[in-house]
Amino acid sequence: MPRANAALAHRLSVAPMMDWTDRHCRVFHRMMTRHAMLYSEMVTSAAVLHGPKERLLGFSAVEHPVALQLGGSDPRDLAAATAIARDWGYDEINLNCGCPSDRVQSGCFGAVLMERPALVAQCVAAMQAETDVPVTVKCRIGVDDQDPEVVLPVFIEHLAQVGVRHVVIHARKAWLKGLSPKENREIPPLDHDLVLRMKARFPELTICLNGGIGTLAQARDLIAQGVDGVMIGRVAYHDPAAVLIGADALWGDDHAPSVFEVADLMRPYIAAHLAEGGRMHQITRHMLGLFAGRSGARIWRRRLSEGTNRPGLGLEIYDAALAEVSRAAAAAA
Length: 333
Known about the structure:
alpha/beta, TIM Barrel, Four Helix Bundle (Hemerythrin (Met), subunit A), 2 domains, eight-stranded parallel beta barrel, 16 helices, globular
């Protein structure tokens, strides 16, 4: 069941990231923060309708609060996908209007939808009719030659008119012509001030800012400046402890496990996955950055990258890696 405090979870959230924020990654992140909203990878409406439901939509109850991000541009398909997802118990359904990849452009969804605010409003309204949880939108500030100062408020106004109460804004344009998805995450200049102005213009909406946030200090500062929350992306994957351990202070909670405690908390989850026939690598590939910047980080990455994809493997590699990191930490103390 969705958690009662899910509406507050957007003070800090972990962005939906393709090939990264799967169910195992989200459980790992949840071991570090009790409160942050965790987002799934984007799943297309077509995949939900025609693909393996458990693999695409299943998740552990410990992940709450957790959101499902859908990709698509057909209101009927998105409504049908939302109806299917309803029974899985997500706390939120999010529509992707920000991904710039060639695949989403050819399918007329993702960032290209910034050019079609009326269609986005139709999609959201159709989705809302099929669920009792909030339907939210993640978008860019604009695409290609659009003027964000002009198009972004119009886009948000369309959303507000159909009852959207929460928008996550990646504070960069998406260049659909000439930049790769990776370049679109780095090259277009950030405009945090524009997102802050959108919050001032739409005070009744929950406006969260995504893009270029690499520390908890930055997150706190942006919230203090007026946005309702921040969404953190790549740093939450590559150096998760830096931004997720201690993040619960944003909710007045002093929960802050050590990196070793997090590793220990993951052990029974990994053991259960192995017992079900899974492979350790499916989980530990998301954990390579746990000790980033700390003694033993290289040992940890190497040990968990070697041989953890073998079938029938037990916890011995994991335990040995953790023991080596512990010794390295003790030697450096």
